[in-house]
Design brief:
By secondary structure, the protein is α/β, with parallel strands linked by helices. It contains 19 helices and 11 strands. Helix 1 packs antiparallel against helix 2 and helix 4 packs across helix 6. Bound molecules: S-adenosylmethionine.
């Protein structure tokens, strides 16, 4: 592979924005890719791959390169030389790359790979937390969370079928395959930007990981029901729920952020999902008005996001232990208060994209032992681990409220 100067320099700029200006990796990459219209698909994937890799392996590469934060441009180039050397890419004779000790890089990589926190490139606190929560399973999970995620589509059954979607994408040279156990999912055989396709613009599919697609199914909604999606955000699961409800009945999408609900409305229009009503949670009244009114409630709770590190590698560096402690408190409060919206005999799903038991089954156990939780029974629960499934880490529990 020949390294192109403008692509490498643009990637270094993106890394500077991520590490020194606190930008999210996906936003920094998106902005960088817009810079030069002449860049083709290969150039774009080079930038995305290199930047994501260096973000993902920041700690390991910095140890190998013997550089400490803050990373000025010279240090960023040293991280880049580690990346290129480990990938077996011949380095050009640019002055920024002079005196790269290639053999030493490989030696240090072998040495540091013996220690998990370096091998998996994670902060000390995260390694300790993972070990404490998952014990022997942590090794395999953190390794799986460092693998680049597949692109999975969810067919919008309000507009088409997986078979038709597969055929339409095939005509665009986008090959897909079904995902076992996830009926409306199609996995891309090769990464591609699917957002430019007419099928996406016409609302035939959404990009949604296979594990995430199991959440709406878990709630067992039926057309004509009143369903509340209590933490709807920009609506990934709400759109899925609307399609399972065949646009019949009422789907009330709540969130504390109005801007996310606006995005949901935009997506719903594209998807042809007409039974969604958004309500901004700007006071406790919004929840009180819905007490005992819903056949089904989905709590897709705010969480650490540790199950989706594959697609957000910079979360390793942005997450803090305090945030996780606070979010657990929020999860408990949400379960306590929002469960009141379920009708007697109705059902509730609590879900997270975390692999930590303290955010998942332990949170549910605590709720079931609380005053409000006493009227619920655990019908079933599912923990999806990335090492076993190959998809994102998720947890979901279905609770039934007594009549
Ligand atoms: C995991 S995300 C939801 C993702 C969304 N359901 C989807 O499928 O695209 C959690 C959401 O909870 C929202 N949230 C945080 N605190 C909340 C609260 N107290 N009440 C309701 N929503 C809350 C966040 O704004 C965020 O959109």
């Amino acid at each position: 592979m020949r390294l192109h100067r403008n692509l490498v320099f643009a990637s270094i700029d993106a890394l500077n924005e991520i590490f020194n200006e606190n930008k999210y990796a996906d936003k920094a990459i998106q902005g960088t890719l817009k810079r030069d219209k002449r860049w083709g698909a290969r150039d774009r994937s080079f930038i995305a791959e290199m930047v994501y890799d260096i973000v993902r392996w920041k700690r390991l590469y910095a140890e190998i390169a013997e550089v400490k934060e803050p990373f000025d441009r010279q240090k960023l180039f040293r991280l880049f030389t580690v990346w290129a050397t480990l990938k077996g890419i011949a380095l050009p004779d640019w002055k920024q790359l002079e005196d790269t000790p290639t053999r030493r890089i490989k030696g240090r990589f072998d040495e540091l790979s013996k220690i998990r926190k370096y091998r998996e490139s994670i902060p000390d606190w995260l390694d300790e937390l993972g070990q404490k929560e998952l014990g022997k399973k942590w090794d395999a999970e953190i390794a799986a969370l460092n693998v680049e995620a597949d692109v999975v589509l969810r067919t919008n059954t309000l507009k088409t079928t997986p078979e038709k979607l597969k055929a339409i994408l095939f005509d665009l040279d986008l090959e897909t395959e079904p995902v076992q156990g996830v009926p409306n999912a199609l996995k891309l055989k090769e990464r591609a930007n699917v957002f430019q396709t007419p099928a996406f613009k016409d609302g035939w599919f959404e990009v949604q990981d296979a594990s995430s697609q199991l959440v709406a199914d878990f709630l067992d909604v039926k057309p004509g029901m009143r369903v509340v999606d209590a933490c709807a955000g920009a609506g990934g699961k709400a759109l899925h729920l609307a399609s399972l409800m065949e646009n019949k009945g009422q789907l009330i999408a709540l969130d504390i952020y109005a801007n996310k609900l606006n995005e949901l409305k935009r997506r719903a229009k594209r998807a042809g999902a007409f039974n969604i009503e958004t309500r901004h949670i700007d006071s406790t009244k919004v929840i009180k008005k819905l007490h005992e009114k819903a056949d089904r409630v989905l709590i897709d709770a705010p969480c650490s996001g540790l199950g989706v590190l594959r697609r957000n590698p910079d979360a390793k560096w942005k997450l803090q232990p305090d945030f996780i402690e606070n979010i657990k408190q929020t999860q408990a409060e949400i379960l306590d208060q929002y469960s009141k919206m379920v009708k007697p005999g109705g059902q509730l799903v609590y879900a997270t994209c975390s692999i930590l038991p303290s955010e998942n089954d332990k949170q549910i156990k605590k709720f079931l032992n609380s005053e409000n939780g006493k009227s619920f029974n655990l019908a079933k629960e599912k923990t999806i681990l990335p090492s076993k499934s190959g998809y994102d880490g998720f947890y979901m529990a279905l609770l039934t409220k007594t009549e």
